[in-house]
């Protein structure tokens, strides 16, 4: 059930679709608003997000492999050779997933809890590393910078945030993404999906 | 970040080049001077390949249209060759780019068009998964191993997702499940899996703004679906279900449709003739007159008159019998028959009289024919009612069989042509 409140900067009406979203980007004044214990705080600017062709649009659900996903947040990152979008989306059960979209390379990932610590210096493209008793290969390594934010997110994000990320490809199509930011490692696990199998649903009236 | 380069000049020769691909494309190959430039490193020239033979194919850089429902642009061209079982084969891969669906390939191969895209189906496919004529699961389908070969690049142009060079070699293993194919492409560094889809050439050419006035595709492509045409398919589909019905109907009529006897007699002397009397209860049911005479190298002709007793109306008709046999050249032979059956529908219900007698001989017939004429052979006559004829059901069954069989034959010939180029025994 959506929860409405007003932007502390411009007073515009904001809506939180997911109860545990911690950040909402105001579409009126481009502020980002942190929601902590029912207290609203201005966090920064949402940045300017140029419209680009995409299979994913905020408020328009998509179907893939029998599951529906509703994008409610969009973060755009730049990296050395271009940019990609990270969509925060709700699946059919209302659980949140990350969908990364980079020119038809699309992956759906969920947060992955692990106590494992990996030495970032070993993460070179082509290197093979062991992760949770399985052998993975580093297939991509780069540094991303958050350029723009729209919608709502489960965590605080800021335009200008930078982090290093690594894609690890493993057996049975396992995809692990390691993100390093300020010495902390964040892990997500998911799978690559075929864009030709994605079906867009009708636009919701209140999107 | 939102600004997009749409054209640039070759950093080697200065020729104008279109910039059509997205940021993931790594190489730009000048089609004027063959310079390979690194798009991710300021278009630095990495190598130069001159005088590459341009491959055959209808598309050029910048062509755009719908493929599999997605708007795609041709951003790169790669000519590929392979030696398979001693013969050289050539085809052209067009690198397609869609901002929403990314990079894929459209392949022009001897007039056939196919689309292929990189897929990851969560399975660890390896070379050992493929064995001749074996089947393997992928992408929710079952693929049959088709062939393996080394594909070698001989031409490059435009924007490509890797840094290419002529002579690059990929080992490919193809599985097929028409209209799809599933391939393993192996280099020293990695294994990629691709899903192929056979395309309707005319539709794609028209979508890209070209009329399909090109020569017809050669042979049968490995993943080309068998498409016999809607009419033949529908007719064969109907024949498949009606053929057993017709055959059962024919057998039923053959065994049960003989009718019941309403009159029978043996005429000892057909020269003087005789008559049978019978009742005809229906004008819509067939009746039959079965005749049998013990002829031996003889013939006979009988004039018959069917008289409706009540009205006196008559119908005249005739029928002959002839039977010859002998032994010649060490073999027995015979021709003709000692029996004959006439079928009719009575014009009226009621009692009928059937009069039968030999027809008088024409004066002009030969002496031999006159000598062989049987005027005194006894003739057995049986009249039946409620007779059914199975022959039409047999003809229907035969026609349906031909229709269904012709589709099966075409399918078999199509598959033979498909596998004629495939890996079969080893």
Give a quick rundown of the structure.
The complex is a heterodimer of chains A (207) and B (426). Chain A is an all-beta fold and 207 residues long.
Write up this protein.
The complex is a heterodimer of chains A (207) and B (426). Chain A is mainly beta and 207 residues long. Chain A has no helices and 16 strands. Chain A has a domain of 43 residues: Rubrerythrin, domain 2 (Single Sheet). Chain A is globular. Chain A starts with a strand and ends with a strand. Chain B is an alpha+beta fold and 426 residues long. Chain B has three domains: 201 residues, no CATH class; 67 residues; 128 residues, Sandwich (Jelly Rolls). Chain B has an eight-stranded antiparallel barrel. A five-stranded antiparallel beta sheet of chain B has the order 17-23-19-20-21. In chain B, strands 16-24-18-22 form a four-stranded antiparallel beta sheet, with no helix packed on it. In chain B, a hairpin with a 2-residue loop joins strand 20 and strand 21. Chain B is rod-shaped and about 115 Å long. The C terminus of chain B is likely disordered. Chains A and B meet through loops of A and strand 9 of B.
Mean pLDDT of chain B: 90
Order of helices and strands of chain B: EEEEEEEEEEEEEEEHHEEEEEEEEHEH
Could you give the order of strands across the largest sheet of chain B? 7-8-9-10-15-14-13-12
Class derived from helix and strand content of chain A = mainly beta
Tell me the fraction of residues in β-strands of chain B, as a range.
over 45%
Number of beta strands of chain B = 24
Spatial gap, N to C terminus of chain A: 14 Å
Using the CA coordinates, give the radius of gyration of chain A.
17 Å
In sequence order, what are the helices and strands of chain A, one letter per element?
Answer: EEEEEEEEEEEEEEEE
Uncertain residue segments of chain A: none
Helical content class of chain B:
10-25%
Number of helices of chain A: 0
Classified by CATH, the class of the domain at 3-45 in chain A is: Mainly Beta
Share of β-strand residues of chain A: over 45%
The dominant shape of chain B is rod-shaped
Q: What CATH architecture label of the domain at 3-45 in chain A applies?
A: Single Sheet
Helix count of chain B, per DSSP?
Answer: 4
């Amino acid at each position: 059930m959506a929860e409405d409140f007003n932007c502390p900067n411009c007073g515009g009406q904001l809506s939180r679709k997911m109860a545990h979203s911690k950040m909402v980007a105001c579409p009126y004044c481009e502020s980002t608003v942190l929601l902590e214990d029912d207290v609203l705080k201005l966090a920064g600017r949402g940045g300017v997000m140029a419209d680009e062709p995409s299979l994913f649009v905020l408020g328009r659900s998509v179907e893939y492999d029998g599951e529906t996903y509703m994008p409610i947040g969009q973060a755009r990152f730049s990296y050395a050779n271009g940019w990609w979008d990270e969509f925060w989306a709700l699946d059919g059960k209302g659980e949140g997933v990350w969908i990364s979209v980079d020119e038809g390379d699309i992956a759906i990932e969920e947060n992955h809890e692990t106590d494992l610590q990996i030495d970032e210096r070993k993460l070179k493209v082509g290197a093979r590393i062991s992760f949770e008793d399985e052998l993975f290969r580093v297939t991509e390594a780069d540094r991303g910078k958050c350029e723009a934010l729209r919608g709502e997110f489960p965590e605080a994000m800021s335009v200008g945030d930078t982090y290093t990320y690594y894609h690890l490809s493993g057996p049975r199509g396992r995809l692990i993404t390691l993100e390093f930011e300020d010495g902390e490692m964040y892990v997500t696990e998911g799978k690559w999906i075929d864009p030709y199998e994605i079906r867009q649903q009708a636009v919701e009236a209140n999107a | 970040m939102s600004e997009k380069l749409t054209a640039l000049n070759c950093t080697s020769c200065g020729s104008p080049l279109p910039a059509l691909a997205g940021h993931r494309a790594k190489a730009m190959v000048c089609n004027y001077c063959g310079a390979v430039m690194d798009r991710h490193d300021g278009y630095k020239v990495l190598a130069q390949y001159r005088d590459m033979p341009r491959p055959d194919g209808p598309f050029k850089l910048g062509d755009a249209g719908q493929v599999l429902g997605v708007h795609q642009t041709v951003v790169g061209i790669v000519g590929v060759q392979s030696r398979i079982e001693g013969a050289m084969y050539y085809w052209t891969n067009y690198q397609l780019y869609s901002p929403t669906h990314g990079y894929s390939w459209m392949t022009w191969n001897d007039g056939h068009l196919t689309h292929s895209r990189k897929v990851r189906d969560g399975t660890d496919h390896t070379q050992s998964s493929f064995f001749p004529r074996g089947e393997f699961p992928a992408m929710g389908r079952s693929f049959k191993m088709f062939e393996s070969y080394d594909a070698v690049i001989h031409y490059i142009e435009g924007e490509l997702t890797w840094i290419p060079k002529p002579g690059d070699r990929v080992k490919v293993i193809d599985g097929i499940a028409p209209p799809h194919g599933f391939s393993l492409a192996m280099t020293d560094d990695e294994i990629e899996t691709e899903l192929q889809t056979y395309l309707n050439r005319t539709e794609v050419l028209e979508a890209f703004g070209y009329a399909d006035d090109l020569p017809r595709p050669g042979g049968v492509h490995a993943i080309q679906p068998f498409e016999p045409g809607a009419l033949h398919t529908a007719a064969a589909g109907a024949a498949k279900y009606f053929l057993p019905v017709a055959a059962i109907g024919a057998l039923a009529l053959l065994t049960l449709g003989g009718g019941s006897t309403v009159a029978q007699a043996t005429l000892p002397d057909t020269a003087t003739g005789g008559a049978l009397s019978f009742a005809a209860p229906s004008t819509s049911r067939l009746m039959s007159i079965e005749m049998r005479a013990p002829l031996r190298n003889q013939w006979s002709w009988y004039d018959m008159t069917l008289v409706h007793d009540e009205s006196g109306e008559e119908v005249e008709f005739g029928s002959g019998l002839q039977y010859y046999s002998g032994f010649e050249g060490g073999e027995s032979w015979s021709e003709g028959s000692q029996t004959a059956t006439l079928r009719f529908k009575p014009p009226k219900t009621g009692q009928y009289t059937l009069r039968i007698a030999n027809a008088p001989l024409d004066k002009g017939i030969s002496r031999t024919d006159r000598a062989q004429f049987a005027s005194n052979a006894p003739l057995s006559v049986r009249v039946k009612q409620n007779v059914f004829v199975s022959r039409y059901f047999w003809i229907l069954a035969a026609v349906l069989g031909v229709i269904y069989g012709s589709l099966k034959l075409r399918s078999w010939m199509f598959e033979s042509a498909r596998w004629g180029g495939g890996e079969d025994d080893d």
